């Protein structure tokens, strides 16, 4: 059975066919009306041009990896006429591509790439390895995007938004105060990291403003999962050396809420970078956007870092409820003991996972994160 589905795509008018011929009634009266020729020849425009989309049949590409662009959709390129580079930032309609010799080329995306049938909000993202055709000394057109590995994605208006591609690890930057600590957001980031093939690292910033003894239960719940945890302060310099060691010779994406101090940490890790920072709003204790686009930065001590804009929420992309428990490895020893093989660990009787939570063998906070993510996928 063919694996195909109906999809809605943007309507692109066919400018190659002639407009609808006039004088149908006159031709019909004269015995010259040819219905088949009219159907095959004319270009019909919807009344008032209100129809903006059309339905087509395409191969079902669901089940692919996050951020993946099907290779068969990518056009071939002339490697003699094109150059290879890496996207270091995307700003509006243009991408800044850095070549192997360090040159930066301002590139637009070839129209063919934009017309690809894809669920992604952005065809090109920071970190992409691309082929571009130069149109001048510092301008060009991106003609092909190479397959990705290691991506951070989220759902945005029912489409996949790839924040960054081709990185090794995700540094989850969480503020202990101003804005306040949000443990449930940590768990969503860990799930997104596992989904995208990234190693998660938890960075608890502004540690100079918090009582570290109160943080031990939180820290312990993640170190038991094998997730590195580093406490930092861009103000005092505490933990910066440890953070620098974790970043050395790796490609890392910094992500977290606005105002948690991602940019301040980068300035502390590599002095002289002089990236702009802003304070947290005193009205709602929410961060103010300083970084407005993801930017790839080379580190002097080796490696790359991607500084991303702050997020208010992180909605996982292309996740069904049954997959959520896979992001909670502490459930696994107990899940096999449930009375029902398809137990969702939410409402069923005889659930060994819920029993483990009541006995404090599983963190109640982590379990509540699981329930929130599970219910969220049901609503989506």
Provide a compact summary of the structure:
With 380 residues, this protein is an alpha/beta fold.
List keywords for this structure.
4 domains, Rossmann fold, globular, 15 strands, 380 residues, OB fold (Dihydrolipoamide Acetyltransferase, E2P), alpha/beta, six-stranded mixed β-sheet, 11 helices, five-stranded mixed barrel
Q: Structural class given helices, strands, pairing?
A: alpha/beta
Helix content estimate: 10-25%
CATH topology of the largest domain: Rossmann fold
The portion of residues forming beta strands comes to 15-25%
How many runs of DSSP E, i.e. beta strands?
Answer: 15
Please, what is the average pLDDT? Answer: 81
Number of helical stretches of at least 4 residues: 11
Q: In angstroms, what separates the terminal alpha carbons?
A: 28 Å
How is the largest sheet built, in terms of strand order? 12-11-10-13-15-14
* Assembly status: single chain
Spell the H/E element sequence: EHHEEEEHEEEEEHEHEHEHEEHHHH
**General shape:** globular
CATH superfamily of the largest domain: P-loop containing nucleotide triphosphate hydrolases
- The radius of gyration is 26 Å
The CATH class of the largest domain is Alpha Beta
Poorly predicted runs are 38-51, 53-62, 278-289
Main beta-sheet strand count, sense and barrel state? 6 strands, mixed
Q: What's the number of structural domains?
A: 4
Q: Which CATH architecture of the largest domain is right?
A: 3-Layer(aba) Sandwich
């Amino acid at each position: 059975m063919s694996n195909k589905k109906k999809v809605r795509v943007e309507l692109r008018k066919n400018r190659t066919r002639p407009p609808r011929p006039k004088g149908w009634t006159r031709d019909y009266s004269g015995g010259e009306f040819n219905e088949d020729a009219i159907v095959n020849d004319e270009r019909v425009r919807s009344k008032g041009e209100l129809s903006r989309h059309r339905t087509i049949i395409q191969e079902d590409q669901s089940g692919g990896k996050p951020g993946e662009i099907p290779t068969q959709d990518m056009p071939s390129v002339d490697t003699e006429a094109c150059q290879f580079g890496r996207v270091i930032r995307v700003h509006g309609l243009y991408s800044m591509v850095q070549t192997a010799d360090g040159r930066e080329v301002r590139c637009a995306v070839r129209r063919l790439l934009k017309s690809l049938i894809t669920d992604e909000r952005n065809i090109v993202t920071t970190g992409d390895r691309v082929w571009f055709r130069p149109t001048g000394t510092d301008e060009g057109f991106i003609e092909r995007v190479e397959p990705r590995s290691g991506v951070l994605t989220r759902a945005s208006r029912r489409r996949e938004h790839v924040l960054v591609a081709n990185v090794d690890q995700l540094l989850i930057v969480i503020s202990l105060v101003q804005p306040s600590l949000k443990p449930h957001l940590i768990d969503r980031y860990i799930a997104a990291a596992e989904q995208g093939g990234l190693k998660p690292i938890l960075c608890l910033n502004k540690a100079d403003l918090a009582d570290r003894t109160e943080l031990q239960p939180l820290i312990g719940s993640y170190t038991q999962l094998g997730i590195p945890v580093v406490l930092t302060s861009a103000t005092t310099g505490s933990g910066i050396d440890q953070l620098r060691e974790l970043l050395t010779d790796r490609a890392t994406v910094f992500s977290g809420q606005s105002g948690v101090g991602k940019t301040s940490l980068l300035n502390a890790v590599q002095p002289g970078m002089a990236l702009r920072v802003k304070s947290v709003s005193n009205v709602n204790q929410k961060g103010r956007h300083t970084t407005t686009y993801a930017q790839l930065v080379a580190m002097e001590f080796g490696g790359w870092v991607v500084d991303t804009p702050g997020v208010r929420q992180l909605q996982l992309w292309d996740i069904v409820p049954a997959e959520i428990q896979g992001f909670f490895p502490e459930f696994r020893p107990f899940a096999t003991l449930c009375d029902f093989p398809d137990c969702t660990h939410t409402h069923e009787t005889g659930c060994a996972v819920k029993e483990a939570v009541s006995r404090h063998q599983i963190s109640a906070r982590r379990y509540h994160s699981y329930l929130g993510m599970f219910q969220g996928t049901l609503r989506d």
